[in-house]
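Hi Y.,

Following your request, here is the sequence exactly as I used it, all 155 residues.
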Amino acid sequence: SAAASPRLRGRAAKPAGKTLTPLVAGAWRRVSAKTAKLRRHGADEAIFANTVGNLCEGTGSNIFCVYDGELVTPTLESGALAGVTRALVLEWFGATERDVPLDSLFEAEEIFLTSTTRDVQAIHRVDDHTLAAPGPITSQVAKTFAAHSAEDLNP
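Below is the corresponding structure, written out as tokens. Let me know if you'd prefer a different format.
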């Protein structure tokens, strides 16, 4: 993990077939350097916390987690990007928006990222913590997203 902002820390996450490492928000000019470091450690994405240590977003993606069968994503007030794909997942599938401590990534049953280039991408590793990916909720979200996207190419 790497510190990208004062007093905050990060975690690594790995999408199915890929690896991620969370960092901390507020240091965008250092993202390129951190991303290069993450890749050297086998990570493909960084996950950022906000200034109070809550889960925020990836370098160009939004994050969703499953806790006790509930799909959760950070609030926009957390500093998360108001992503188009995030909004579509919320509209088409639904999720609870709430503050999520960064360390809770290790308690998640499933984690996935969303973006216009990823659509819905399951994460299978956070640092050294492995997840079964895609899990059943992630799979259903991906199927729902793909079906709605196929119906309307310009949602």
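Residues 1-28 have pLDDT under 50 and may be disordered.

Thanks again,
Q.
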